[in-house]
Amino acid sequence: MSTTIKITLVLNLLHLLFVAALVRSDQNTLPLRSFKISENAKYDCVDIFKQPGLNHPLLQNHTIQIAGVRSRAGPFHGVEAWYDGYALNVGRYQISYSQIFIGSRLNNQNNFIQAGYIINPGFFRTGQLWTYAFWKGKDGKGCYNTAFDGFIQVSRKFPIVQPIDLKPGVPDWSRWSIHQKLVAYSISNGPNEDIGYWSKELFNLIDNGATTVGVGGAVQASGSGESPPMGNGNFPVGGRLDSALVTNIEVLDSNYNNRKMNSFPTEIMVYSPKCYGVRLVR
User: Which residues belong to the signal peptide in this entry (predicted)?
Assistant: First the structure.
């Protein structure tokens, strides 16, 4: 029996203390690389530790809240799901994410890959919804998108990061998958499109499979402690389409077979139930 997951966004299990590429970087920050998405959209990639927004005092004590589901019954070789991204009212010093992820943790080390949607006005200089991906590998190295070497772009149609034009209340539906360090992305009802991949040499804990997979959402509060909305901002208490929706969640198991996520033991994660929620619909 398949499981549909309705949440006020989708989950991030791991550390979301970094942020992505900038649209027009600070004049005092030298871009590592610049990309032109369209005639009206260009972004610069900068060192994630040197982004000008990180100097703002409101970001010194930011907090992160999570809602979603995960399974720790690995090893896993991938995860995929359909979910929706919405235009949200996210403040300049707030962030709202939705993504799928795979990862492993051993002692104080983490390896993980996550991909999905992000709204980050303080760094993208726009309140638009963007696609993104992030990886963390051996020696603690990792980054967003193509800011540093590591991610190999192969698609000529879809960049790993791009703005999504949305009308309020009308979501962008997409299917995301991470298959053994290969990200495949397709728009709603469209054919799969491999965006690119990370080489196995970058990782030491997930090169033979990850111990955890999941889907979910996370928000980063401003320094004042005020958190932005997840998903479409509604609690999952009404009909199927009243709140954000994650569906057709499948996991690539230890034998590289696709299986429904509810074939494995799953764990619901809600850090702040007064603000966010998760509802499983079978």
Answer: 1-25
Instruction: Name 132's Cβ contacts closer than 8 Å, sequence gap at least 6.
Output: 20, 115, 116, 117, 118, 144, 145, 160, 161
- Summarised one tens digit per residue, pLDDT across range 187-232 is 534 567 788 888 888 889 998 899 999 998 888 888 777 889 988 8
Residue 8 and residue 243 in contact, taking contact as beta carbons nearer than 8 Å = yes
Q: Check if the beta carbon of residue 37 is closer than 8 Å to that of residue 159.
A: yes
- Distance in Å from the first CA to the final CA of the chain: 7
Domain extent at residue 146: 4-281
List Cα–Cα distances, 135 to 18, 172, 181, in angstroms.
11, 23, 10
Cα(14)–Cα(97) distance, rounded to whole angstroms?
A: 12
Distance separating alpha carbons of residues 116 and 216, to the nearest angstrom: 10
